Amino acid sequence: MVHSRRRLTLGTALLAAAAMALTGCGTSGPGESSAAEASAWATTGSVHEQIWKKSFETWNSENPDSEIAVEWFNNDAYKEKVRTAIGAGTGPSLVFGWGGGTLADYVDKGKVVDLTGKVDDLVARVLPSVVKNGMIGDKLYAVPNSQSQPVVLYYNTELFDEVGVEVPKTWDELLSAVDAFVDAGVTPFALAGASKWPELMWIQYLTDRIGGPEAFNAVLAGEDDAWSNPAIIEALEKIQELVDRGAFGNGFGSVVADTRADAALLHTGKAAMLLQGSWLYSSFLTDAPDFVDRGGLATTSFPTIEGGAGDPADIVGNPANYWSVSADASEDVQKTVTSYLDEMVFSDDYTQQLIDGGGVPPVAGLEDALAKSDNADFLTFAYDLVKNAPHFQLSWDQALRPAQAQELLTNLDLVFLGKSTPQQFADAMNGTL
């Protein structure tokens, strides 16, 4: 159990940078880029937005003849827009992504450049396991650009003290905590159900704890009826049990992740716990600094499940976010953005700014730097999760191909809303294999 009582030191400066628009060459139009100019599309929110803006500003200042123009999107809007733009050849020169199935799809269609041997300085700075997630076969098509992002269990220490509940370490303890908070009139878990993808964190951890990585690996391998694996069915049954007990309250279907409404429920005392990515920690630092300072926020690992085959040290989430280089960009633009990647990403300044902003860089040997941080408790906790995890499962909606991922989000949401049974979910998803 980790309590983080200190706030970021560079928060004011970073927020100022986040509020400023980049100066640089313009784009071809809203959401459309030209192959003749260097451009990047990126997602807003969390510490990565602050670091990227600072990094691009520095690059543009030092390279006035090779500037990179940046457009910013909310997470969900970006996912909808970028695939269409890439397919039409009007996407950005630097393509933001998560690796996994979407990257494989881009590679199959010849939409991104092989970066093998072109960014060796950057690769040498990053943990090999994180670099691997940007590879298809033995070639590198995407490089990490942000913090490692394990999904962690945040909780409101003040509500736990007020209601007299112990932090759950096992599934039975979690159910007891849910009942206690419901009886006290507190929503046990904040959940951004309107965004759907936060629901994945529940089925991923439950499936891994019950059946180990093999259950989802069978899905990735396309094995017949892989979604009918008993571990997945049991995970869905446990989700329904949580919903029936009132674990997520009555209005979770209208809570939106892009506005950080789930985090707000936690730091305003309306919800006791939140299963979310480590990327959200920096948002707590900026949105609720007093709450963090007084020790109201703490984090712990996902509970164990008695008799489960999974290793309790396994984690789920995103090893990092990634940049790829568009194959539709001109050769000169490809050279510009590749040089930016090799020189700027995870440089010493970039890495330190990420630490100062509450992020966990996927860079080896950071123990001393993290220990000196104003956010040492949380950063060390998250870094150790990543460093010690026997298995780090990429978010399922990114690990799968885009069409299958959309079906997953749709069918899982139906389970959370009580409109589908675990078996109906499995039947529908087996049809996508």
UniProtKB/TrEMBL annotation:
| PROSITE patterns attached to this UniProt entry | PROKAR_LIPOPROTEIN, TAT
Q: Name one Pfam family in it.
A: SBP_bac_1
Taxonomic lineage of the native organism: Bacteria, Bacillati, Actinomycetota, Actinomycetes, Micrococcales
Q: Any coiled-coil ranges, and where?
A: none
Q: Which species expresses this protein natively?
A: Paramicrobacterium humi
Q: Which UniProt keywords apply?
A: Signal
Q: Does the keyword Signal apply?
A: yes
Q: Does the keyword Signal apply?
A: yes
> What name does UniProt use for this protein?
Carbohydrate ABC transporter substrate-binding protein, CUT1 family
- Range of residues in the leader sequence: 1-21
Note the superkingdom of the native organism.
Answer: Bacteria
Q: Cross-referenced InterPro entries, in alphabetical order?
A: Bact_solute-bd_prot1, SBP, TAT_signal
Name the PANTHER family for this protein.
ARABINOSE-BINDING PROTEIN-RELATED (PTHR43649), BLR3389 PROTEIN (PTHR43649:SF14)
